[in-house]
Structure to design on (808 residues):
C-alpha cells in the first residue's frame, strides 16, 4: 500500500525541495494570466458595481470595463447611478471614465491617479429599468440626536396642512368628531393625582394634629400659673420662689407651644403647594385642548406653518442629502487626528486600517486631477475638474476641490455653477458647497396632494441657489428658489375650496422660497418663508377664520365640560380641608396666645413687685442715713 | 476538485503510513498561517509558494487552513485588540512607517488591526502546532492505526483477492 515501505522497489531519497512542482507552478501562473485576461474585468466590474451601490444607496450599473495590467490603466464606460428618491431615473450618468495608475504606488498597495478623464456627464436621465434602492443602514447604537431631530422635522413636514384646511373649507367640522372624547386626557390623570395628593395631605395633618398638645395641657399650665403668689409677695424669699415657678411654667409652655407654632408655618406651606398644583391644572387643560386640536387636524392658519408644509420637505431632503454625503466624505476621507481616538470598526471582522504615511508617501487613494467634460452639439456642455481627492488629506496637504459649470440642455437646465470643497486637512472637518442654477424648467410639480385639494406648478421657469457649510457638528445652509411665469394647477371636489384656492392664487405669477437652517445636527433652527404661503394664508383666512375659531371654542368647551365636575369636586374638597385644618389649628393657637399673655402679665406683676420692694428699701435706707447724719451734726 | 481530492487521499495514505510526519506537521503549520491570513494577501501567496516548492503535505495544509480559518473568525475580536495594541505602539511607529511605504510590503495588509493580530498569533502558534501535530500523528499511528491493523476485520480484508489485486495495482501505478 505504501510505496516507501515496499522492500522490493528501490526507494529514491526525496529532498526537501519539490522539484517536480515546477510544472504545476507554471500551470498555476498560466491559469492566473488566463484569469486576468478573460475574467478579471468582469469580476472587477461587478465588485465596483457592488461597492458603488453601497456608497450611492441605490443601484449603480457599469456598462463596460477594460483594464490593462501592464499599463495599469482602467476604462469604465456607461456608468448609471440610480437616484434613491426616484429609482426610475439616474442621478448621474457618465459616458466614460479613463485613468491610469502609477505602478510605483500599486506596488505599495496604494492607488495613485495622476490624471483622469470623465466624459459625457449627464444628470437626471431615465433608466430602462427602475434601480434597486438599498434600505437605510441600521444605526450602530440607537438613533442619534441628529436622527431624532430630522425624524421630528420629517413628521412635521409630511403632515398635510393645506389638505386639512381645505377639508374644513369644504364643510368638515373637526370638532364634531369630539362628541365623546375617547381615551384619557392628561387632565384626568392630573386631577387623579391632585385627589391623591390631597388625601395624603389630609391624612398627614390628621396624624400631626392628634400629636399636638391638647387643650387640657394648656389648662393645667394655666391652673399652675394661677397658684403662683404674684400680688402678695412679702419678702425676697417669696419673690424668688414665685420667679422660679414662673420660669418652670414658661419652659413647659415653650416646649408645648413650639409644635403648634411650627405646624402653623408648615400648614401654610402645604396649602400654598396645593394652590400651586391647582393652578397647574389650567396648563394641563390647555395642553389637552392643543392635543385635541392636533388630533382633529385643526391646523393654525399662519404663513410660516403653510410655508413649511409647502416646501419644508424639499429643504429637508436637501439637508438629508448633504448629511449623507458629509458622512461618506468623513468616512472615506478621515480627518487628521489620533487613530486610536477613532470609533471602533462597525464590523469587527474587518478590523481597522491604520495609516503610516510620511510627507513623501502616497495615501491609500489619491486622484490628483480629473477633468470633467461633456460636449454636446451646439457647443453647449459641461466643464469641470476635481482636484486632490485623497483618503488622507493631511498627508496630501490640500483639500479636495471640485468645480463644475455648464448646461444640461437635454434636461432644460442652464447656468450650473458648483463649487465643492472638502477640507479634512485639520482636526475639524469642513465641507462647503456653493451651487447655483440660472434656469431650469419645472413641469407638473406637486406641492399639495390630498383627498380634498391638490396644488402644484403646471409649468414654471425656476432658478435656484444653495450654499452649505458643514463644520464639525455645525450646520449652516441657505437655499433659495425663484419660480417665474408660474402656472398653477389645482383641483378640488368642493366648489368652495376651488373658489378659495383660486382667490388665494389670483395674480401670483412669481413664487419665491427662502430657507435658512442653522445650528448643530441635534438642534437645528429652521427659517422658511415663501410668498405662496403668505398668499394662501391671506386667502384662506377669509374663508376659514370664523369656522376655525368656532371649532377651537367647541373643543375648549368640551374639555372644560369634561373636567368641570371633577374640578369642582376637588375645589370643594380643598376648601373643606383648608377650613378644617385652619380651624383646628386656630383653637390651639388661641390657647397658646392666651397662656402666653397670662405669662407675660404675671411677669409684669412680679417686675412691679420687685421695683416696689426696691423703692421701699431705698426709702428706708435714706431715712436711716438722714437720722444718723442728724445725730452726728448735733 | 480532482487535484484537491487527490491531495486529501494522499494525506490519508501518508497519515496511515510510517513516514512523512514532518511533511504533515509542516502542512498543518502552514495551514495555520494560511487560515489566519486574509484570502488574498502577499503572505498567503508566499505560504502557497512554500507549499509548492518544499515538500510540505498540501492536503494537510489545505484541510487545516479551512479549520483554522473558522477558528480565526471566532478569534477576530482578540486579533483586533492585539493588532490595535501593536499598531498603536509608539516605539514601533517608525518601523511601520518604513514598511508602509516600502514596495510590496503593504500588500500583506499588515496595517489592518485584525490582519496584524491574527498574523502575530499564527506566527506564535506555528511552532507549537508543528510539534503538537508531530506528537498527535505519532499517537494516532501507535494507538489507532496499529490497533486497526491487528483487528480481525483488517486481517480478513487484507487476505481477500481484491485487496491483493489493489495492492499490486498501487505498487505499479501509485
Amino acid at each position: 500500500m505504501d510505496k516507501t515501505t515496499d522492500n522490493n522497489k528501490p526507494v529514491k531519497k526525496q529532498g526537501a525541495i519539490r522539484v517536480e512542482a515546477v510544472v504545476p507552478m507554471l500551470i498555476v501562473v498560466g491559469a492566473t494570466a488566463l484569469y486576468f485576461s478573460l475574467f478579471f474585468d468582469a469580476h472587477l466590474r461587478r465588485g465596483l458595481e457592488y461597492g458603488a451601490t453601497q456608497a450611492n444607496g441605490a443601484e449603480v450599473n457599469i456598462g463596460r470595463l477594460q483594464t490593462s495590467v501592464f499599463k495599469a490603466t482602467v476604462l469604465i464606460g456607461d456608468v448609471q447611478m440610480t437616484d434613491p428618491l426616484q429609482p426610475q431615473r439616474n442621478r448621474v450618468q457618465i459616458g466614460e471614465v479613463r485613468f491610469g495608475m502609477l505602478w510605483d504606488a500599486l506596488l505599495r498597495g496604494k492607488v495613485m491617479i495622476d490624471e483622469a478623464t470623465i466624459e459625457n456627464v449627464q444628470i437626471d436621465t431615465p433608466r430602462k429599468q427602475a434601480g434597486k434602492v438599498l434600505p437605510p443602514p441600521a444605526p450602530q447604537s440607537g438613533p442619534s440626536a441628529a436622527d431624532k431631530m430630522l425624524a421630528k422635522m420629517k413628521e412635521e413636514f409630511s403632515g398635510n396642512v393645506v389638505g386639512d384646511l381645505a377639508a374644513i373649507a369644504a364643510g368638515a367640522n373637526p370638532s364634531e368628531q369630539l362628541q365623546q372624547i375617547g381615551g384619557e386626557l392628561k387632565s384626568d390623570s392630573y386631577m387623579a393625582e391632585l385627589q391623591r395628593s390631597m388625601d395624603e395631605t389630609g391624612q398627614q395633618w390628621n396624624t400631626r394634629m392628634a400629636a399636638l398638645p391638647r387643650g387640657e395641657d394648656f389648662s393645667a399650665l394655666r391652673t399652675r400659673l394661677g397658684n403662683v403668689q404674684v400680688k402678695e409677695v412679702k419678702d425676697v424669699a417669696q419673690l424668688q420662689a414665685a420667679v422660679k415657678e414662673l420660669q418652670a411654667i414658661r419652659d413647659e409652655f415653650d416646649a408645648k407651644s413650639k409644635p403648634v407654632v411650627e405646624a402653623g408655618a408648615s400648614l401654610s406651606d402645604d396649602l400654598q403647594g396645593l394652590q400651586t398644583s391647582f393652578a397647574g391644572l389650567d396648563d394641563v387643560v390647555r395642553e389637552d385642548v392643543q392635543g385635541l386640536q392636533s388630533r382633529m387636524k385643526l391646523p393654525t392658519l399662519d404663513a410660516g406653518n403653510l410655508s413649511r408644509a409647502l416646501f419644508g420637505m424639499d429643504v429637508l431632503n436637501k439637508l438629508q442629502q448633504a448629511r449623507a454625503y458629509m458622512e461618506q466624505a468623513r468616512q472615506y476621507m478621515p480627518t487628521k487626528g489620533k487613530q486610536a481616538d477613532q470609533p471602533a470598526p462597525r464590523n469587527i471582522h474587518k478590523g481597522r486600517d491604520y495609516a503610516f504615511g510620511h510627507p513623501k508617501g502616497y495615501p491609500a487613494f489619491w486622484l490628483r486631477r480629473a477633468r470633467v467634460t461633456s460636449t454636446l452639439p451646439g457647443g453647449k456642455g459641461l466643464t469641470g475638474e476635481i482636484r486632490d481627492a485623497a483618503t488622507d488629506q493631511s498627508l496630501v496637504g490640500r483639500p479636495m476641490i471640485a468645480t463644475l459649470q455648464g448646461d444640461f440642455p437635454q434636461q432644460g437646465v442652464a447656468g450650473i455653477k458648483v463649487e465643492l470643497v472638502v477640507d479634512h486637512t485639520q482636526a475639524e472637518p469642513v465641507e462647503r458647497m456653493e451651487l447655483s442654477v440660472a434656469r431650469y424648467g419645472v413641469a407638473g410639480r406637486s406641492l399639495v396632494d390630498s383627498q380634498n385639494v391638490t396644488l402644484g406648478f403646471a409649468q414654471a421657469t425656476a432658478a435656484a441657489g444653495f450654499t452649505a457649510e458643514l463644520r464639525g457638528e455645525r450646520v449652516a445652509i441657505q437655499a433659495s428658489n425663484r419660480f417665474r411665469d408660474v402656472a398653477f394647477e389645482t383641483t378640488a371636489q368642493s366648489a368652495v375650496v376651488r373658489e378659495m384656492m383660486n382667490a388665494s392664487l389670483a395674480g401670483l405669477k412669481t413664487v419665491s422660497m427662502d430657507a435658512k437652517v442653522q445650528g448643530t445636527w441635534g438642534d437645528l433652527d429652521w427659517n422658511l418663508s415663501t410668498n405662496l404661503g403668505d398668499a394662501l394664508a391671506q386667502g384662506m383666512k377669509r374663508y376659514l377664520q370664523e369656522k376655525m375659531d368656532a371649532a377651537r371654542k367647541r373643543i375648549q368647551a368640551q374639555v372644560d365640560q369634561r373636567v368641570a365636575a371633577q374640578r369642582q369636586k376637588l375645589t370643594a374638597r380643598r376648601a373643606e380641608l383648608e377650613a378644617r385644618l385652619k380651624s383646628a389649628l386656630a383653637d390651639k393657637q388661641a390657647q397658646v396666645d392666651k397662656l402666653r399673655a397670662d405669662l407675660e402679665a404675671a411677669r409684669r406683676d412680679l417686675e412691679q413687685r420687685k421695683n416696689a420692694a426696691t423703692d421701699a428699701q431705698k426709702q428706708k435706707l435714706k431715712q436711716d442715713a438722714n437720722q444718723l447724719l442728724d445725730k452726728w451734726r448735733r | 476538485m480532482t487535484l484537491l481530492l487527490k491531495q486529501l487521499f494522499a494525506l490519508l495514505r501518508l497519515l496511515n503510513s510510517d513516514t512523512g510526519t514532518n511533511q504533515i506537521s509542516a502542512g498543518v503549520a502552514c495551514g495555520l498561517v494560511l487560515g489566519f491570513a486574509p484570502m488574498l494577501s502577499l503572505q498567503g501567496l508566499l505560504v502557497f509558494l512554500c507549499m509548492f516548492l518544499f515538500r510540505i503535505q498540501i492536503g494537510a495544509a489545505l484541510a487545516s487552513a479551512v479549520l483554522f480559518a473558522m477558528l480565526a473568525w471566532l478569534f477576530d475580536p482578540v486579533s483586533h485588540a492585539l493588532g490595535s495594541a501593536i499598531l498603536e505602539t509608539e516605539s514601533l511607529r517608525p518601523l511601520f512607517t518604513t514598511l508602509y511605504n516600502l514596495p510590496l510590503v503593504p500588500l500583506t495588509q499588515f496595517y489592518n488591526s485584525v490582519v496584524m493580530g491574527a498574523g502575530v498569533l499564527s506566527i506564535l502558534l506555528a511552532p507549537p502546532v508543528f510539534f503538537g501535530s508531530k506528537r498527535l500523528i505519532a499517537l494516532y499511528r501507535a494507538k489507532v492505526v496499529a490497533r486497526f491493523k491487528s483487528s480481525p476485520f483488517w486481517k480478513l480484508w487484507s487476505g481477500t483477492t481484491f485487496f491483493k489485486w489493489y495492492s499490486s495495482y498501487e505498487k505499479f501505478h501509485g
